[in-house]
Amino acid sequence: ILMQSPLSAGGWSPLDSDHYQWLQVDLGSRKQVSAIATQGRYSSSDWTTRYRLLYSDTGRNWKPYHQDGNIWAFSGNSNSESVVRHELQQGIVARFLRLIPLAWSEEGRIGLRIEIYGCSYWADVINFDGQGVISYRFKVKKMKIIKDVIALRFKTSESEGVILHGEGQQGDYITLELRKAKLLFNQYGSILGHTSVTTGSLLDDNHWHSVVIERYRRNVNFTLDRHTQHFRTNGEFDYLDLDYELTFGGMPYSGKPVGGGRKNFKGCMESINYNGDNITDLARRKKLDTSSFRNLSFSCVETHTFPVFFNASSFLQLPGRASHNMVSVGFQFRTWNPDGLLLFSNLDEGTLEISLLDGKILKGCTLNLTITMVSSSGLNDGQWHAVRLVAKENFAMLTVDGEETSAVRSTSPLSINTGRTYHLGGYFLQTLFPPSQHTFQGCMQAILVDDQPADLHAVEKGTVGAFENVSLDMCAIIDRCMPNHCEHGGRCKQTWESFSCTCDGTGYSGATCHTSVYEPSCEAYKHIGKSSDSYWIDPDGSGPLGPFKVNCNMTEDNVWTTVVNNLAPKTAITGSSRERRTVLQVNYSASMEQVTAITTSAEYCEQQIAYSCRMSRLLNTPDGTPFTWWVGRGSEKHLYWGGSGPGIKKCACGIDRNCTDPKYDCNCDADSRQWREDSGLLVYKEHLPVSQVAVGDTNRPGSEAKLTVGPLRCHGDSNSSVLYSPLVPTTQTCLQAIFFFKSASYFFVEVLKGDLYRCFCLCFPSAPETVSFSFDVGNGPVDLTVHSAAPLNDDQWHQVMAERNVKEAVLLLDQTYRTSRPAPAQGHTRLELFSQLYVGAAGGQRGFLGCIRALRMNGITLDLEERAKVTPGVEPGCQGHCTSFGMYCRNGGKCMERYNGYLCDCTATAYDGPFCTRDVGGFFEAGTLVKYNFLPEVVAGASKDSKALTKQLTPHEVNLTKEELAFSFSTSSAPAVLVYISSKTQDYMAVVLKQNGKSCTGMSILVFISKILLNSYTEKTGFVDPVIIERYNTPGFIGCLSRVQFNRAAPLKSALRAATQAAATGKLVESNCGASPLTIPPMSAATDPWHLDNTGESLHHRLPHFNRDSAIIGGIIAVVIFTILCTLVFLIRYMFRHKGTYHTNEAKGSGESAAESADTAIIGTDNPETIDESKKEWFI
């Protein structure tokens, strides 16, 4: 009684403060307990800080209170006066309560005052003896049952037994039974209607369990001890065709073969209700047939088992008959561990040991005789297994579950002389021959020593034997795999203290198989640099949809996702009419839910559908009902055809007004004897994919039709959104949040926060190099932090994955930096979310500055974009893929931002493909020529208002300071001109192939030329005039050229793509010429003879020495034209204000785009005085 009562003085305080003390309360009768409160002993230093609660109906066979899958330890008091009250998450029904102190005051001793809260409880109880059954007969025979509500409570110590059964003459039946201490629901209806669902475990613990079955048509809610499974039964009918009765407690005596020799239920049931009828009350009032009972009892007959619970530091010592020539021991055990010591005893000569090895081997040893049994199934499955060992002179026999494995005779005389004691569940003493195992975690009962039952009541009182850390009259076994916390089909394995998940072959990873190992879309595969291929995708990530395989096409600007179907092209259809249409089922390589996930997240989808016909009409009918229609998503019928849209009963030709017969809107509706076709694309993605097509006009003589339904093709991924979304109230054992963020801000604050009931979850970047994840599930806050090698405020995308499940908490940054924390032994396994989710900031804190996209919570992409449109300070459309993924655009390809991805623009390169990696080349025959006219480049920095903006610059006004030329070629003929670049002046560049197979140019002997200055030449060639070019151009180049790139122009690619500035003479065939990717590194400054630095050294000091022959020719030419130059010099100085400078009027027409180099910007300036006078032409 607590302090609030006048009788509150005093309290319970045992003489010894140790872990073997307990306080027991008898409530007088069974009560429904909802809360418990504690207080320390009055006016003292004695209180209890932690305790455990046990309950029982009889004062025996105690059961510990469970919460969230654990044996719960309640927090107690911190002083003697305050009251600590706990509401029981799961109310219990019991008469006896027992409190076990686990920790107490360091200043005093165990002290306790308690108060129990609850209400009275009463229920009709029926004891089933394993023979009798209760028959509930329907008012009408052969009931067609559409709805069932069945509720009952049961307890038993048997692992097998039929609880409920009903069957019909047509073969329909429904059964609820125990099988291996699990609850099995079986239902069978006609035509592929078998459904079997299993739930629960360890139901033979002789404690009450509650069952509720709610069935409406084919939808079933199956609830056991508040754990509900929702499923849909198989079959085509919504009702069960049963005979006139249901039986409770077993099979009827006139049962059909479906019974299969199953055992009847043995134990107790209470509160049996079927569709509102109280079966137990009707049986008590003798309104039901109970004639099969020999002695019907309305009180529960208790069993007399006395279980013992062992942990890793426990043992139970029992006395035995000393100096006896025979050993006879037996017991039942249950465990999850594969190894353990079950029994050990020191004999006068040798030892006796029974051990469990690897879960399947049970070994018994006596002296030099070893008996080993290998079980066909695991003995560590949590079920009760009976062991019996008998050993005497020259004979030993080990029996498990009643199966005799062997009767072994020793080769030498075997003499047994027993010791005084037997140790069960553990042995920690020093001995000459120690056991192979030392501990056991599990339960034992029905212990026999020397053929006599062990008196465990005397052991509990301390008058017989001894024990250490043993819980008597209780088996605290827990099935940690029921319910199965391993998601997505992961296999659960457990030991006594923990469980683990095997995720092999599921497509998921993590401690609970929660995280998908596949990307969510084809767009995501492109982001990581993948090319076109077939890939497994998982659109909802950790959601319920499994991964599936699709084809990803990345050769176009859009990334196409293709899902194929099983309908063969041009499938023939005959014999259909409007009254009896032929329905063609279209099945896809993925389930309809998976395909729907693609269409929902895509920006655009299409599906080709074609109807080839001869005297088979498609849509037109006199009454307006089409002959043929198709069924899409959601089993909705659609009356339009490909190329048209919803609500328009036309085909593509009807939309375009080009049908063969203008009186009809479809080609096939003309009912022609010639083959016609109506085809087009279905693009309304909310209706896709096509799941069925019903054809209705192929039954007339000569009528034929062929149907083609193409694959579903979609592109775009709309799973990118920003900022805020309300979170639907939910209770989850696992919460996973995945998102991308980028920021250039130094200060990072809360990014993601959800206020929870009794727990909260918070994820926020806390410093430029760190990301933190915090949560509280009822046992204090937990913080996880990962550190990046570089600051995260680098304006690049970073991915964060935060997950908390029943096994661990994980924080992962950029798929590289990971930290985890195992879940505590006791805590709330479910996150209870009942508030809104805030993204960016919460609680008045400083907001996040940057971008967030692709936020997923447990596989569900939150559509935050719409919220961003109405949230002040937030803008939708967070872009920036090129920052992180632009590196995949090769060979000068330009990364172009798109809303949900990026695009590599290869226009200005000599390459093609999604990543600008595919060579573009052509095969040249004799006489084939590609001519490319250079367009003037727009100069940066010019005003948009310039009058010269629209002025077309002439080629001679464009002066470049350097050229970059690269190409690949393959030929077997020479000589040939490979590349010739001309101008309005005498400036030119040529690459020719000599007769000896060596190339020569007017600039360099290298085929790959970079950083070349005009009007310079090499040591080898000197001046190349048109006569020499004419000589090398006969008969012309024959072979392959590819990757032709000159500055920012790709002449050959432009010609092959029919660009306006490029034209081909002769036959030019596109080919990559077998070229391999370019691997020549750029020339270093130390080895480049044309490298310019900023030292201001004159250009003529850097030029190489002239070839002697070239110098003589140049001198003669100089003398001839010297007089002409002198005459013209006055005119040149008069026309140009700055002699020898690169003066141009480009600036007047610029402003549309940025300049490509600093030189171009200088040329384009409006102020001529800023032009560098050091840039002059050198005439030789």
UniProtKB/TrEMBL annotation:
Q: List the disulfide bonds.
A: 851-878
In the UniProt record, does the keyword Repeat occur? yes
Coiled coil feature spans: none
Q: Which residues form the F5/8 type C domain?
A: 1-119
Where it mainly occurs, coarsely classed, is: other
PROSITE patterns to which the protein is assigned, alphabetical: EGF_3 (PS50026), FA58C_1 (PS01285), FA58C_2 (PS01286), FA58C_3 (PS50022), FIBRINOGEN_C_2 (PS51406), LAM_G_DOMAIN (PS50025)
Q: Where are the transmembrane segments?
A: 1111-1132
The reply on keyword Transmembrane helix is yes
Q: Which residues form the Laminin G domain?
A: 125-300, 305-475, 711-878
Q: Which keywords does UniProt give here?
A: Cell adhesion, Cell junction, Disulfide bond, EGF-like domain, Membrane, Phosphoprotein, Repeat, Signal, Transmembrane, Transmembrane helix
Residue ranges of the EGF-like domain?
477-514, 879-917
One cellular component term from this protein's GO annotations in UniProt = membrane
Look up and give the membrane topology term. Single-pass type I membrane protein
A Pfam family that the UniProt record links to this protein: F5_F8_type_C
Q: Where in the cell is it found?
A: Cell junction, Paranodal septate junction; Membrane
Which GO BP terms, alphabetically?
Answer: cell adhesion
Family assignment?
Belongs to the neurexin family.
**Protein's name according to its UniProt entry:** Contactin associated protein 2
Q: Which organism is it from?
A: Oryzias sinensis
